[in-house]
Amino acid sequence: MLRRWNTAILMAVCGVLLAAAQVARGSVGDGVTGLLAFLALALLMSPWALPRSVSAAQAHAASLRDGRPIVYWRPGCRYCLQLRIHLGHDARRLHWVDIWRDPAGAATVRAVADGNETVPTVVIAGQAFVNPDRKWLREQIRAS
Questions:
Q1: N-term to C-term CA, the chain
Q2: What is 81-125 written as a DSSP string?
């Protein structure tokens, strides 16, 4: 499970090292600013930046009931984060599956992405779209 946090931890450590270097040079303000910037990046790259994940089985069952799309993602993926930010409040209307937590979700992505774990992969009404255009996806969500 630590793998999910690797990028966030790396960002936080870089921020601490940068801050320590700046403070050692006598520039406390720059050190604090750099630390805060890296901590913000760490938060954005953490699993906390995206809506709560469910298992692939739960997402599939719920999607059959409510017709909402499923997004397969992984922590640290900048494209997943960009999608999340672009969707804004609409992101809460989707089912999110973390492929690093759910082997079945990872298998689903590999099945539709030529054996690769390319994310974000979105399933709408049973049809998969690998790294779909964000604007198009937002239109699909609002139309449903």
A1: 34
A2: HHHHHHHGGGGGGSEEEETTT-HHHHHHHHHHTTT---S-EEEET
**CATH superfamily of this structure's domain 51-143:** Glutaredoxin (3.40.30.10)
CA distance 34 to 115: 39
Structure tokens at 87: 């969707």
Look up the pTM and report it. Answer: 0.71
Mean local confidence (pLDDT), 117-121 = 95
For the beta sheet containing 70-73, the strands, ordered from the edge strand earlier in sequence to the opposite edge, are: 95-98, 70-73, 121-124, 127-130
Structural domain boundaries in the chain: 2-48, 51-143
Non-local CB neighbours of 83 within 8 Å, separated by 6+ positions: 71, 73, 91, 120, 134, 137
Give 15-25 pLDDT, tens digit per residue.
Answer: 999 999 999 99
